[in-house]
Fold this sequence. Notes:
Family: Belongs to the TatC family.
Structural class: mainly alpha
Pfam families: TatC (PF00902)
Order of helices and strands: HEHHEHHHHH
Shape: flat
Strand order of the largest sheet: 1-2
Subcellular location: Cell membrane; Membrane
Number of strands: 2
Strand content: under 5%
Radius of gyration: 22 Å
Transmembrane segments: 19-41, 61-88, 100-127, 147-176, 188-206, 212-230
Mean pLDDT: 85
Helix content: over 70%
Number of helices: 8
InterPro entries: Sec-indep_translocase_CS, TatC
Distance between the termini: 42 Å
Amino acid sequence: xxxxxxxxxxxxxxLRKRLMIIAAVFIAFLALSFxxxxxxxxxxxxxxxxxxxxxGPSEILWVYxxxxxxxxxxxxxxxxxxxxxxxxxxALTGMEKKVALSYIPALFFLFITGIAxxxxxxxxxxxxxxxxxxxxxxxxxxxxxxxxxxxLHLTLPFxxxxxxxxxxxxxxxxxxxxxxxxxxxxxxxxxxxxxxxxLVTPPDFISDILVTLPxxxxxxxxxxxxxxxxxxxxxxxxxxQKL
Length: 243
């Protein structure tokens, strides 16, 4: 077996190790979340104007599992980011290692911010719109499982979307992306973000605007941050060349 094949096997072994650590941490947080999942559930349903129903004992367990999983994902993000950093750090310079490590707290903060945006802003808009559609024609009947699936579909994607600035900054610091390439694909990125906003919101103009604008601002913020990182990197390289 040649050295190249050995290196590939070592990389796969290292990757497997990092993934196992992430999985173990997620399972640990999942088990811990189950201790408090009843309190989390009560907090989430405290302001509902309607009662949630269950169609069987297994549905309660499934809802608890969904809620505990979201908490475990949020809690495990810093650990997952750190393990990914440990995996890629051998290929980074000393400065790049410090920069990448500094992004880890931001990943957690932006994930929570995205979840909060979906839950406190988007969810009430969509839910109120759907409730007004029924009017007096239907009796609203919500099962606990269907309701929380609906909540997760409207909140969890935004947790990941809000991490876009940090991901772009990291890729820019590695030289994989630059602000000029992001500017060139701006119209395509806008199109994708607008489609996402339309798909997750009710079919009314106000809701579409309220979701589209933050997503577009998020992209522009990502481009601006990428430009800052890129310019700093170019200045440092110019100084090093002079030396």
